[in-house]
Amino acid sequence: MAAILIVDDDAAMREALTEAVRDLGHDAHAAASGDAALHMLDRHPVAGVLLDLRMPGMDGLEVLRRIRTRPRPPAVTVLTAHAGAANTIEAMRLGAFDHVIKPIGRSDLSRILDAMLAYTSGVPNAAHQATRETLIGSSEAMRAVQKAIGVLADNDATVLITGETGTGKEVVARAIHDHGRRHDGPFAAVNCAAIPAELLESELFGHVRGAFTGAATDRPGAFRQAERGTLFLDEIGDMPLAMQAKILRALQDRVITPVGGKPAAVDVRVIAATHRDLTAAVRDGSFREDLFYRLHVVPIRLPPLAERIADIVPLAEHFLAQAGDKQLSAGAAARLIRHRWPGNVRELKNAMERVAVMVRGARVAAEDLAFLDQSSAADGAGIDWPDEDLPTALARLEAMLIRRALERSGGNRADAARRLNIHRQLLYAKMRRYGLSASDDRTTDVGEADDADGSETGKP
Predict the structure, then answer these.
(1) In whole angstroms, what is the distance from residue 430 CA to residue 150 CA?
(2) What secondary structure letter does DSSP report for 304?
(3) Which pLDDT band, with edges at 50, 70 and 90, does 447 fall under?
(4) CA separation for the pair 91, 75 (Å, rounded)
(5) CATH topology assigned to domain 3-121
(6) Terminal CA-CA length for the chain
(7) Which of 63, 195, 307, 428 is deepest in the core (most CB within 10 A)?
(8) Contact assessment for residue 280 and residue 445, using Cβ atoms and an 8 Å cutoff
(9) What share of the chain has pLDDT > 90, as a percent?
(10) How far apart are CA 127 and CA 52, in angstroms?
(11) Separation CA 336–CA 43 (nearest Å)
(12) Using CA atoms, how far apart are residues 232 and 212, in angstroms rounded to an integer?
């Protein structure tokens, strides 16, 4: 039995709710105004509040606002006969557990009370205090990664982390740094794909005042910022060829030359990461072979989340604990395991942050994750094709796969062809057939010499 406070200026509604709450086995208290409700809360702690929105004097939103400022506020469900977008949004923004239109049926009332009580009885999870992402997972694939981190943490060997976008490559790089002998030093991260080519040299090596237009002061650069620590070069596969030569020298000699300055020695460990196939990039000339072998001293491959089934639920619980004190139901856990996770750990984290905000109860149900099915459908999974002949259906599927490969490769048609396991020339022909174009012309195809063979089974 729990104590429930009913706040409504309508005597008939107040009495009806009081009777229904008691019939459902709970202790009911009633207040006819907002002021009376707040005074009653001072004398009688309650587990939940059913709060009318429109009342004379202090309205329901103001009462809700004051309740939410209390140290351990009860769950509050706002009841109104005049629901509108503005008051619904404001009530939820202020922290209402739910916003319900009157009149309310007995079964709905029972469901709301059960959910409110489950919400208020939730036990805060200690993991909620975590601020930095950590390596979560007990699958064989992740145990291999964890063992590799332990072996090389105190070694200054260059590490190359590979894996699909969203698998957590920077988390692994930080773990190597945090567990190694350089943990007291700085950790500097540079996303090589996010910085324009003309600015990347200055970002990495720094510059001296007056080296170029706009260089008003000296800049140390990422290598110097990571002195006696770790420099993480993310998405190094997107680095321009000219810059690759300069990075190679820095790795070989541990000497950098700021723009407009003189060479200087640096003491830094370098960890690089990429989602691209660097072996293929070396073959087509978009990545230097000597740099590849300089980086590939200790390779670590991060598997996609779909290959880490045992880690999905622990990761989800970890992210939920970071975002709010909620738990997964068995049905929700099963739904997470069934999802393909094309966005990997990053997609899972975003999904848990979403339900932590949108789900008002203490437990996440399977139906709270319905948006995952919608995202899968948008990606081409589970499509219910219309009644059509086989050639038309295959053409539709082929166009969808080509469009998705182009999106995932950032518009790089050579990379898209590799993903599809077809020749570039065949990809170009199919793009023309279906009226498709690369979505991003910033990346140009590398090695576009005519292929000798245009068969569909050959490698690009």
Answers:
(1) 47
(2) P
(3) very low
(4) 12
(5) Rossmann fold (3.40.50)
(6) 69
(7) 63
(8) no
(9) 47
(10) 36
(11) 44
(12) 26
Rounded distance between C-alpha atoms, residue 335 and residue 55, angstroms: 42
> The tokens of 384 are what?
């219910």
The answer to whether residue 225 scores a pLDDT higher than 70 is: yes
Query: Look-up: residue for tokens 């569909």?
Result: 456
Catalogue the long-range contacts made by 26-29 (C-beta closer than 8 Å, 24 or more residues apart). Answer: 26/1, 26/2, 26/113, 27/1, 27/2, 27/3, 28/3, 28/4, 29/3, 29/4, 29/5
pLDDT digits (tens, 9 = 90+) for 321-362: 887 778 898 889 989 999 999 999 999 999 999 999 888 778
Three-state DSSP class for 141?
helix
According to CATH, where is 1.10.8.60 located in the chain?
308-378
The CA dihedral of 390, 396, 401, 403, to the nearest 10 degrees, is 160
The structure tokens 């202090």 sit at 58
Name the architecture of domain 385-460.
Orthogonal Bundle (1.10)
pLDDT tens column, 99-146 = 888 888 888 898 889 888 876 654 333 333 333 456 787 788 888 888
